[in-house]
């Protein structure tokens, strides 16, 4: 599982489905539910607009997808 570090640049997919560049500003705890997957909370800052967002990254064992999904 990839965890993104504070200060790292990432590409995320916004609510409209467009990809954008952001910087990780904070990372919450990894929550593991019954060993089947995990949830990580991130606060990211959009490089272009300067807006900050909280995103949830979910991972299910057996699936590999390193993308952020905003809500």
CA-based gyration radius? 12 Å
Counting structural domains, the number is: 1
End-to-end Cα distance, whole Å, is: 21 Å
Averaged pLDDT, please? 78
Written as H for each helix and E for each strand, in order along the chain, the element string is EEEEE
Q: How are strands sequenced across the largest beta sheet? A: 4-3-2-1-5
Runs with pLDDT <50, length 5+? 66-71
The SS-based structural class is: mainly beta
Number of helices: 0
**Oligomerization state:** single chain
Judging from the principal axes of the Cα atoms, what is the shape? globular
Strand residues, percent: over 45%
- Biggest sheet character: 5 strands, mixed
Number of strands: 5
What is the helix fraction of residues, given as a range? Answer: under 10%
Could you characterize what this model shows?
This protein has 71 residues and is an all-beta fold. The chain has one domain (9-69). It is 0% helix and 56% strand. It is built from no helices and five strands. The protein has strands at residues 9-13, 19-32, 37-46, 52-60, 68-69. It has a five-stranded mixed beta sheet with strand order 4-3-2-1-5, with no helix packed on it. It is globular and about 40 Å long.
In short:
This protein has one domain. It is built from no helices and five strands. The chain has strands at residues 9-13, 19-32, 37-46, 52-60, 68-69.
